Amino acid sequence: MTDSKKSPSKSVAKKIDAARRELKTATAPRTERQLLLCVDRKTAECASRSSMTTSWKYLKKRTKELKLSRVSGLWRVPCYCLGVCVGGPIAVVLPDNCWYGHCTPQVIERILKEHIIGGTVVSEYMISPKQLEK
Ligand code: FES
User: Fold this and answer.
1) If you measure from the C-alpha of residue 41 to the centroid of ligand 1, how many angstroms do you get, rounded to a whole number?
2) CATH of the domain at 87
3) Which atom from ligand 1 is nearest to the alpha carbon of 88?
4) FRET pair for 69, CA 20 to 30 Å: which of 21, 56, 59, 62?
């Protein structure tokens, strides 16, 4: 048996059980979609630090105003580099796997209203070929 196939120690198994219990009550598994926005201000390669900050603040404000939350089905997540590093701020809507570029507040507004609420991708700003199935 290799090390990777060994059972976890009792203390690790206890922590895993605690995480399983917590997951049952957490809201994350009930979200229908996640909207990840690159706010990697340390590298800031896909956009300037200020535009990342502006976009993230706008996303937080509008999701509150539109009552889009983990409980209602959308989990907005600030994240580090999404690996595109140009034409940002970059965002991705999961599980749709729709990637967006140039996510200014105006584009975020469209993503929220057209994609998240309306179910139609904002094709002008999509950088991935994936389309939503109708
Ligand atoms: S720094 Fe934003 S995608 Fe890499």
Assistant:
1) 9
2) 3.40.30.10
3) 2
4) 21
